[in-house]
Structure formats: structure tokens, C-alpha cells
Design a protein that fits this description.
By secondary structure, the protein is of the alpha+beta class. It is built from three helices and four strands, in the order H-H-H-E-E-E-E. It has a single domain, classed as Nuclear Transport Factor 2, Chain: A. It has a four-stranded antiparallel β-sheet with strand order 1-2-3-4. The chain is globular and about 45 Å long. Bound molecules: zinc ion (2 copies). One zinc ion (ZN) binds next to helix 2. The site of one zinc ion (ZN) has 6 residues, from loops.
């Protein structure tokens, strides 16, 4: 089962051929690929990788593990060194939407996460579900 897991980043590819190799140390081919791998690392609890993939200039001394229940990721816009995305997560019975624009920079051959500005709010019941399904939240992750 775990061998054929689809990637948490929502690419539709298998985890083992998408974000997992990058989490294991392969070079991410783009800032977007690195961002996706960081989302997958959050979703699967790879805290060491999250710290490792942070740019040395802004890297925290420690990444605090959280038990956030992530619902899905959708990329709004990606440029060479920035990625705007929406990620959905659950907080109690609420469906929350995290809208962030992250900046990335190269450290040697590797893309690294520099910083980002984010906006967290409760997903509107009639808005598109932040998990990226294209259904309304009330018909998707917000279904009671
Ligand atoms: Zn992936
Ligand atoms: Zn959903």
C-alpha cells in the first residue's frame, strides 16, 4: 500500500516518483518542485528535510513538528524563483485555507526555501475547496 501511495502534493504521480526522491536528497529541478516536496514533507512529517530545504540565510534552528491535517495543495502561479499556492488544512471542524507566496533561492545546485508571506483564513463554504478538488468547500472537505 505504501509503495503505491500517490504523492501528497497532488501531482497525480506516485510519491516514489514525485516528491520522495527530492525529500531523500535529489536535486529539485525547479522552485515549484522544491515547494511541492516541502508540502509533501509537511504532510508526511519529514521535519529534518523541512529544515534542510530551508535557505541557510533564513533557516530556523529547529522546525517544530505539527500534527496539522493537510487536505491538499494547488499551485496558483509559479515563476522561476517564487510559487504562489493555496493549501487546505483542517482545524477542529473548520476547513482552513493557507494562501502563500513563497520565495526560493539557489544554494549551490539546490533550490532552497527563502521566505514567504501567507494569509490564513477559514474557507468559505461556497468557495472552491482549498484542497484543490474544484468542488465547493461545503460539498467537499467541509461536508458535515
Ligand atoms: Zn509530489
Ligand atoms: Zn476538499
Amino acid at each position: 500500500m505504501s509503495d503505491a501511495k500517490t504523492c501528497p502534493c497532488g501531482s497525480g504521480a506516485l510519491f516514489s516518483s514525485c516528491c520522495e526522491p527530492i525529500i531523500s536528497g535529489a536535486i529539485a529541478p525547479s522552485a515549484e518542485a522544491l515547494m511541492r516536496s516541502r508540502y509533501s514533507a509537511y504532510a508526511s512529517g519529514c521535519w529534518n528535510y523541512l529544515r534542510q530545504s530551508w535557505h541557510p540565510d533564513t533557516r530556523p534552528s529547529k522546525v517544530t513538528p505539527t500534527d496539522t491535517c493537510w487536505l491538499g495543495l494547488s499551485i496558483v502561479k509559479a515563476t522561476e524563483d517564487s510559487v504562489e499556492f493555496i493549501a487546505g488544512f483542517r482545524e477542529g471542524s473548520k476547513v482552513m485555507s493557507l494562501h502563500e507566496t513563497s520565495r526560493f533561492a539557489k544554494d549551490g545546485a539546490h533550490w532552497r526555501y527563502l521566505d514567504g508571506s501567507c494569509d490564513i483564513c477559514e474557507a468559505g463554504r461556497n468557495s472552491p475547496c482549498p484542497c484543490g478538488s474544484s468542488l465547493k468547500t461545503k460539498r467537499c472537505c467541509g461536508k458535515l
